[in-house]
Amino acid sequence: MAYTWFDDYLLGQATRAYQHLGCHFGENKGVSGAWFRVYAPKARSVTLIGDFNSWNLFAHQMKKVDDRGLYEIFVPEVKEYQSYKYHIEAEDGSFLDKCDPVGFFSELRPGTCSRTFDIENFIYHDEDYMNQRSRNFDRPVSIYEIHLGSWLGMVDGRNLSYEEIAPRLIDYCHENGFTHVEVMPITQYPFDGSWGYQVVGYYSVDSRYGNPKQFMSFIDRMHQAGIGVILDFVPVHFAVDPHGLARFDGSTVYEYGNENEYSQWGSKNFDLGKDPVRSFLMSSINFFIEYFHVDGIRIDAVSNIIYYDGNADRGINTGAVDFVKRLNYKVHDMHPDVMMIAEDSSAYGHVTKGYEGLGFDYKWDLGWMNDTLKYYAKDPIYRSYHHNQLTFSMAYFYSENFVLPLSHDEVVFGKGTIINKMWGNYDDKFAGVRNLYAYQFAHPGKKLNFMGNELASFDEWNEHKSLPWELKSFPKHDSVSRLIRDLNLVYRNHPALYFEEYNPAHFQWISCNNSDQSVIVFKREAQDECFIFVFNMTPNYYAVYDIGVPYEGDYEEVINTDKDVYGGWNQCNYMPLKSIVGEYQNQSCRLTIKLGSFAGIFLRYVKKSAPRKVNAENIKNASSSIKTTKKN
């Protein structure tokens, strides 16, 4: 018997199972209709029920075409958008009605059926973007994490569609300088409050916002505008809703059959050691890469892949680790320009580096996020005792390729918003959050901010409500938005802030041990460009402050978070500053600056061979691909 795609599926090697499983429009002996195929290894029988047969339990019994559990049937005259399910007789004689595990579209909740949909023949217009796409190691990456339903909220009692969101999001990303958007899970999920992290349809685009081709159009338009799209993906656990994957054919097809069956979230854990489960998930990820042109996949809860329930004391889950290694190898082999990103809170080594590692391109630096936010929450009087929380990240930074996340996890109910985490009174909090965002962009690593961080909202994110866009009418809040815009523009247009940032040769501490004053100074240098970063973590103001710098010559202040346009007190260095020769802080020259309270400062060395003024007008016009708006 010839080796088939189904052998690949059962051996955990399939990456295109969607070409065979699910519903596919076609012909059979010259008759138009649709093929339906499903994997149900322990079922006694499977019957297809749906709109096309008036939900008749006897009209379309599926044929078992492989004794290992593959069923199929061809149904004439099936139309698009018809609802259907599989009526499964389990081994114990009970009956289950299940949606299609590889269904491409689903009823809008509370409906629970799969819907027929022709996934083929969408015409893309993003060839130029796809031809230059890469994994972005030496390119700027500033990610805007978004929950599609609550970014703008409902209009006339309904969610905006993928196609309606696209032009608004494009304009916003252009105006604010973001390079990518990361969309929280859009695989079909029943419960709004799970935000997409408890899935029932791993091939089904979320019907809250439209159909699969509308989502293809969303990505196509983002690409034409030069904006990348990253998808959140949840391969650790799935929803327990009775129409989903749980006990799919009466047996544990997808989950464990022991105490590991349920996750800490009350959902069911995938048994990632099972080969058909591996094929199912790898094919799902590849489906979104090949059919939807996504640029990156962010894998959720990697620590729960590495360890049972994320608990290192329970030991490494070798089957799950082997799965993620195989997944990353296959994705990179087929799509060397697609980013694989780990949301991982564990201390497991080589998540992104080394042949013995997991094979991801990037890892969220959750240690940086936790240490940094704890530090900014402290009273400046006591920050000198916790100075290492600010500097420790660089001690391990080069062990992985890190993304610096200020994500949705930090602004949900009960956690407070980013600005609410800052120490002090109203003005202090704004000064602190400006300093924090500047520090994030100065620190090596790709950047990620959850939607609304740029508004400095005091209200936690609620998936049922729009972002508080009215805050833009208040100068304090709008000034934070302007700062993030300018940080993005400076970041995108200066190689010292992104080129070879995972190479320690491009970073140097100038002053990292000044805990008494809680001031840090460091240098980043790449492609004949040198930036000096100075951060004052206290309300103390210094009219004269000396720092060491590597070169004799002029230094221009590119960013100062204390500028009045950002809501500060304007204790800035407007004219170019000239260094003098003389060793200081292990540098060959000394530079005297004005250092405002809670100020974050970016200084650019102006080399004689390539003089370049960097001022507000340069920033505004830094890239013709970015739209900016004049501030009053």
Descriptive overview:
Helix 4 (162-176) packs parallel to helix 5 and helix 13 runs parallel beside helix 14 (475-493). 24% of the residues lie in helices and 24% in strands. It has a domain at 506-620: Immunoglobulin-like (Sandwich), CATH 2.60.40. The chain is built from 15 helices and 29 strands. It is an alpha/beta fold and 632 residues long. The strands form 7 sheets. Strands 9-10-13-16-17-18-19-20 form an 8-stranded parallel beta barrel. The chain is elongated.
Query: What is the overall silhouette?
Result: elongated
The helix content, as a percent range, equals 10-25%
- CATH H-level homologous superfamily name of the domain at 506-620: Golgi alpha-mannosidase II
Computed Rg: 27 Å
CATH class of the domain at 506-620: Mainly Beta
Given helix and strand content, the structural type is alpha/beta
Low-confidence stretches: 609-632
Biggest sheet character: 8 strands, parallel, barrel
Q: What is the rounded distance between the termini?
A: 74 Å
Average pLDDT score:
94
Strand order of the largest sheet: 9-10-13-16-17-18-19-20
Q: State the helix count.
A: 15
Which CATH-level-2 architecture of the domain at 506-620?
Sandwich
CATH topology of the domain at 506-620: Immunoglobulin-like
How much of the sequence is in beta strands?
15-25%
How many E-type strands?
29
